[in-house]
């Protein structure tokens, strides 16, 4: 066989292999997913969307629910490393304490992708992070409230997310930036509701009792819709009207906040897509197929919704997504 034909055959084989690899994509890849838990409707939707995205790509997803505990996440990640998985997804419950275990993943040459929350520490510990701009979410919420109340005095109570989590830190920062310099807007009480409905209700009950039965409260800013839904119940139990006596602004855009808007009990939410896994899997495929280094931060959209934005339709569009 002439040299030319040998080279042509070889090139053809390489092309075939590459195209097969590309066609295969992530088929058969084993990917570990350390999920925080199921503290909110949004978290549940993220889990169901991630599983659906993995199935659609033929990925063997190893799912670990940490029940909100960082030590369980660290254990799960070590288990994935021992299994020799191809990649690891992590939704980090808090922002600190990841260097040691992510260094072990790096030394095992297993790419890590962060989902929906960030971490402190060297950025080379993860291939990419898929998350919203959480400071912007807080800013959008604060700007909506400032625009709604105008010059009127508005005492705000804040339900913070999980202590030490990047969304709780960033959403607080963004909201405070938006109301800075506005003398009529003040956060008078702020406490964590840990992103759950039950804790959000409990903390709001305390705020109402401490503030003359709620007469001194103009608005509640909740770092997620689940805590807002809990707060709405507490406001109603106190004999006040959520959405009018006390304005309700939060983040996630889960179906139940749209149901509350339809009932006139909620005023604004900032959308957070539950599909962080799709962009994560796309980045891994480009990395494996073509050695493409993804952007270190893949930022998802944040859109404001109010009762002017067809809340019934938004409820219908989201109600079957696993929230
Ligand atoms: C934010 C995400 C938050 C959601 C909550 O990116 O981590 O965690 O806003 C969830 O609903 O508990």
From TrEMBL:
SUPFAM superfamilies linked to this entry: Periplasmic binding protein-like I
Endpoints of the signal sequence: 1-23
InterPro entries from the UniProt entry: Peripla_BP_I (IPR028082), SBP_2_dom (IPR025997), YtfQ_transport (IPR054837)
Keyword annotations from UniProtKB, A to Z: Signal
A Pfam family reported for this protein in Swiss-Prot or TrEMBL: Peripla_BP_4
Subcellular location: Cell envelope
All copies of domain Periplasmic binding protein, residue ranges: 31-287
GO molecular function: carbohydrate binding
Protein name, per record: ABC transporter substrate-binding protein
